Amino acid sequence: MNQLINYIEQIVRLDDEAIRELEQLSEIEYYEKNQLILEQGRRCNKIWFLKSGMVRKYYIHDGKEITVWINTENQTFTSLQSYSQNIPSTEYLQACEDTVAISITRQNSEKLIRFPQFVIFANTLMEREFVNADIHSKALSVKDAKGKYEYLQMIAPEIIKRAKLGHISSILGITQETLSRIRKG
Amino acid sequence: MNQLINYIEQIVRLDDEAIRELEQLSEIEYYEKNQLILEQGRRCNKIWFLKSGMVRKYYIHDGKEITVWINTENQTFTSLQSYSQNIPSTEYLQACEDTVAISITRQNSEKLIRFPQFVIFANTLMEREFVNADIHSKALSVKDAKGKYEYLQMIAPEIIKRAKLGHISSILGITQETLSRIRKG
DNA sequence: TTCTTTTTTTGACATAGATCAAAAAATGTG
DNA sequence: CACATTTTTTGATCTATGTCAAAAAAAGAA
Questions:
Q1: Which of A94, A112, B63, B173 is 20 to 30 A away from residue A53, measured at CA?
Q2: Does residue A146 form part of some domain?
């Protein structure tokens, strides 16, 4: 729990009551390697904070898995589209390693709205995610395969270190074979 | 002004006081075709609502203009990264046609926070933009040049109709020549 | 209208990265 | 351990799209 509180306090200060309430309303979850956290077609009504492990977001296109992103320790994740609009998810969330996460449901997170700190935190987080997504998609769209790989290595070395080749190449929008050749140098 | 109010009221109901305040705090701006609304390097401290005309967002990479997106009537636009973090913009905003827009500064928009409707509106808008950006970047990343063009035509026919070839092709991440050939059929 | 500038089209050619297939290496399992 | 499964590497093509250059068409200016 401290991990999550530290994470939030990088953005806003939390008083004791807010922390108690957060603890009340959140839950800890354990997933095994390869286990699905969210399946396509289901409504996603939680946001998770990753204590340990690694989680992959992907979808299926023409029968092939397209990996969107991979999250590691001390990051939050959800299927935003499904969560925010309460519609069935087009994405899967899968633990790539044994994973421990803290979850909070939308219902419970709405109870936190009475603490202005949480509202500021939620907005700041959303804005940051948006800006980052923007920066990264621009960077990736402009580079060749090698440049994309090097960029990902710069902004997300954990992914490069721990994820498998096929997942990394999919994030970059290139084939496994091409990535393997890039790594040879 | 009515145009903007209708736009907001698709999301939240505004009472008379909120409308008066919004009118007080916003301003109308006129731009000529090709005029820059925001230059790279400048801080962007406004959000605009497009009454008429067309606005292109682009940045320079390796000396070449990369068009990110083009907005048309009844849409809002800004350089989000610069606006939200109050840092110099990496992007330009340019009127592609004679353009009329309503602007509100960050300072003034903060005064609207006392109306909860505006807070809900702002959050909803941000969330929608995020979800849309997500959907579109996925769709574009997975298709070939022709598929990308057809997808853009589906989600933003105004851009296809009114923007020039080079700008459209740049949004799609393909060359002008390739787009010209796709159009021939 | 005529002239200039900008934008779009067309053609010839080059190439990054895809595809397909199979070998090699790594990992997991009883 | 030995065996099965999964993941990564390597090799031989193939192809969609890029690049460069020049012509044609459209738009703007005088």
A1: A112
A2: no
CATH number of the CATH domain containing B27: 2.60.120.10
Please check whether residue B79 lies inside any domain of the structure.
yes
Q: Range of A47's domain?
A: 2-111
Contact B80 A123 (CB under 8 A): no
Q: How many CB atoms lie within 10 A of CB B180?
A: 12
Q: Where are the beta strands (DSSP E) in chain A?
A: 27-31, 36-38, 46-52, 55-61, 64-71, 76-77, 92-95, 99-105
Q: Is residue B42 part of a domain?
A: yes
A93 touches strand C (CB under 7 A): no
Q: For B112-141, write each residue's pLDDT tens digit.
A: 989 989 988 998 898 888 888 888 988 899
Q: Which pLDDT score, from 0 to 100, does residue B130 have?
A: 84
- Give the model's confidence band at B157: pLDDT under 50 very low, under 70 low, under 90 confident, else very high: very high
Question: Rounded mean pLDDT of B67-78?
Answer: 96
- A138 to chain B: which residues are within 8 Å by CB? 59, 66, 68
Between CA A121 and CA A128, with CA A124 as vertex, the angle to 5 degrees is: 135
Q: Is the CB of A178 under 7 A from strand C?
A: yes
Determine, yes or no, domain membership for B105. Answer: yes
In angstroms, the CA B68 to CA B53 distance is 17
**Which residues 43-62 of A interface with strand C at a CB distance below 7 A?**
none
In the predicted model, residues of chain A with pLDDT beneath 70 are none
- Which of A's residues 136-155 have CB atoms within 7 A of nucleic strand C? 144-146
